[in-house]
Amino acid sequence: MNSASSHVYRVDPGGRLTGRLRVPGDKSISHRSIILGSLAEGITDVSGFLEGEDSLATLSAFRDMGVSISGPDQGRIRIQGIGLHGLKASPTPLNLGNSGTSMRLLAGLLAGQSFDSRLIGDASLTGRPMGRVVDPLTRMGAQVRMTESKTAPLEIQGGAVLSGIDYDMPVASAQVKSSLLLAGLYAKGRTCVREPAPTRDHTERMLQGMGYPVERTGNRICLQGGHRLKAIPIEVPADISSAAFFLVGASIAPDSDLILEHVGINPTRTGVLDILKRMGANIDIVATREAGGEPVADLRVRSAVLRGIEIPPDLVPLAIDEFPALFVAAACAEGQTVLTGAGELRVKESDRIGVMAEGLKTLGIDAHPTPDGMVIRGGVLSGGTVESHGDHRIAMAFAMAALRSSQRITINDCANVNTSFPGFVDLSRAAGLLVQNIR
Ligand code: S3P
Hints:
25% strand; binds shikimate-3-phosphate; UDP-n-acetylglucosamine1-carboxyvinyl-transferase, Chain; four-stranded mixed beta sheet
């Protein structure tokens, strides 16, 4: 548990968001820069790295396994790559904190090493499902033990001989896909993963950027063990998942006009833009360009009258981390918003369906949770005290809600905002949100 778990945000009602800002680096790409940079041959210079607790947990884990990494210094790190076979056993368990991405990706990577590993995490991470990676890794020949309820800690036995499998993922998960592809680097033969819907493809892009052959045919991604990775410079764009809070905030707050700079707009991540635009949001995507193998752009967002929609299920995996913010947009929209096909939200850092419904009801909104989604009727947000349950994205979503509330909103348990968005309070205050961290 984070030592500062008592952080409380007090957000006064009203305000508008204006100006230009750059949110911190993409969390998913930051994790992968450490993982693949460590396994590459040569020096990987990373810029724009997210100095949040989750990606720093991955960084520490690789230091613990003998990789020399300097920084971070203003988003810059330098990794002395040690090649695919250079990792060493960590003298202590690898503590991955709150980070599901670290644990699931490392499970795959470490299944293919010659040494044993133990992966631990905080209370939230220890409650999250790990069978989704351990089961297919076991089919590849990995020796991984988890608890009876299929959760961490994970005990990974080194020296297992892995063989490629052809795996049909039951859930659309980039973490599962990436875990199996990382194990596949060490497996005999071909490892193939079929995804039921497109999921973020940063692992595949970075592997290919480093010269590792990866094949995609339709929804099936395959690689063969035994190739090598060559270090390349990595420029991490701003995280669209962090930008999402401002996209919603500037849409719902009257008289807002905000530019979000250098945001990653990889098409496997832009569901939030499509959903908000369908709701009537006024978002311009300008100056689209490419940075380090990923498309980026500036996003200009202005206030708009939002309307409720039925969210198309095919957009769900493309916006999976953005629903806490989107639920706030729905609460401010005219009419009803219906989300289905999003049962995955129940096993994120918190049960994001249950926790958001509870908080929205506290704020006077008619929010009806369902097993795999939510029905929200737009209305007038009052004020009150809501619980984030230690979930960074819940805390930031409710902070934005105050832009349209009639009274102050107090949000408990906000320390984990630092897992993905260090500096959130200062950056959002500078843009016009009336937020203070009071404890
Ligand atoms: C991530 C994948 C997603 C996402 C998470 C980051 C990644 O999880 O929710 O925040 O970096 O691969 P799932 O793959 O479990 O949906």
